[in-house]
Amino acid sequence: MNVATMVLLQGLALASSLFGYFILAPRFFASVSAKDLGIGGGLTLLTIAATYGWWPAAITASATGIRGAYLALVVLDLAWAFLGQGLAGFALCAIPVCPDFSPFSDVARYASLIFGAAAAWSAWNGYRRTAGSTQWAPPVTAIVLTVGSFALQAANTKFP
User: Which of 25, 39, 78, 157 has the fewest Cβ atoms within 10 Å of its own Cβ atom?
Assistant: First the structure.
């Protein structure tokens, strides 16, 4: 698989995951004022934005041959897109939230599963094909952003 295909799959995984957040965001944030958001809610939004802002940097770094960036993409694709937006998204939709957003919520979840898995596979293959040492800062950053954001989301989400 060439770099262009890997970049395309990364973009599709990122877009489908972000689509899932956009679908649910009005449900969770429509009635929240800046005053009611609080520090926890603000940090939650900050970590989500940081993850989506950092993802293209990892895509760019991997396309230039930085091995650790490929591993960062594997983490983001599997943990954020496949598990977080895909599998956990379906679990969240078991709560009466997502029927309001059908069929778009299902499209976002299935797309996150499909493109998250395909993008992780392509990033892993890119990592294996790239020679040289592995830089550990990119995957560690991906893990910190993902785990931190998931923890903040779990602590600050208020279900209807």
Answer: 39
